[in-house]
User: Fold this.
Amino acid sequence: MRSSPMLKAAGLVLAAVLLGLLAVQGSYALWNTAVSANAGTIQAADFRVSLTDTSVNNTTDMTLPDGTAAAIALTTTPAGTVLPGQATYAGVRLGNVTNAGGDFTIQAALGSTPGKTDAGSGLAGYLTVKAVAAAALDQCSSAALYASAPPADLPAMTIAKGATGVFCFQVALNAATPAALAGSTAAITLPIVVTQQ
Amino acid sequence: MNKMGKGAIATGVGVLLLVGGGGTLATWNQAQNASMGSVVSGDLNLVASNGKWTNAAGTAIADISAYRVVPGDVLTYTQDVNVTLTGDLMTAKLTVTGVGADGTGSAAFGGAATASATTLTKGTQVLPDAILKPSDSGVVKASTTFTFKSSATGRTATNASYSLGNIGYALVQQAPASANNS
Assistant:
């Protein structure tokens, strides 16, 4: 039987391919095995710090679910007006409520001197704010706690995982406050910054 | 002699010839066992024991799925991998498969976490191209380190997850020099 050169060429190519495939296949036929390390998945902790007012029903996380910073209005003690020469007190408890697996200590500090706004009345200039670190909210209304604290002090404290710390505030109205400011109001803001230690 | 008689005689002669042939069975003969023995195959196996996670403080982590990492955490995963190689011409390579550094979850951590390439050690490091022999059978220690960088800022990667589930080990026989490749 006579075959054309094309047919012969095709036959040669087919034979070469088959031989090549067989040669490659041979290397896969050797023994091999594989196992998984089962290392699992690593999960990052959250970074939750709770803020609680002296009125313990007033509480929030420092960071809201939408990622923005929370603001908490603090209850003053005694409640009501402040007379010249007298003071009112407030406090906030910070809780390190992270779910970290290992150690996770935070440092909480007042970020800057308290901001005071009075809508132009001038009352803010007669207010002195002192801040100190404490162990419990019920210490905040004790005047002795602030005796040695300078007005510009920015206290800081470390809080271990699962523990709490307290910042107490004293707002004193200068005894020389003009009577013309009676009935005026002022707002005081105290930024708190928390960092991982 | 009629045809029936001739047929009977021919049959008789044939039977006699058969009897004569049977006589050859009586001559000497002998059989021997070749004693080739049994052909026994070797073995190639890989068994990974339960791995162990520890944190930078050296504390064992009983359940990695319940542990939550924070910036500065360095976790190490160690695992014994038992290699079995049997066979006179057995050689094999042991390699790490799957994702290591910059694997799944790296993006979720915003680049704040890395997983090292898994290392294999048996006295000295077992490199991917090392040819293992049956004498190398035994426990190989595997180690992977996960680092949550201290440089993370703000609330970077809170609640993020990093999967290391693709990491595995492969033991692949290498063809003997005389392999027939069939």
About this structure: Confidence is low (pLDDT under 50) at residues 20-27 of chain A. Residues 49-196 of chain A form one domain. The CA atoms of residues 47 and 98 of chain A lie 5 Å apart. Chain A touches chain B at residues 22-23, 26-27, 29-47, 63, 67, 98-104, 196 (CB under 8 Å).
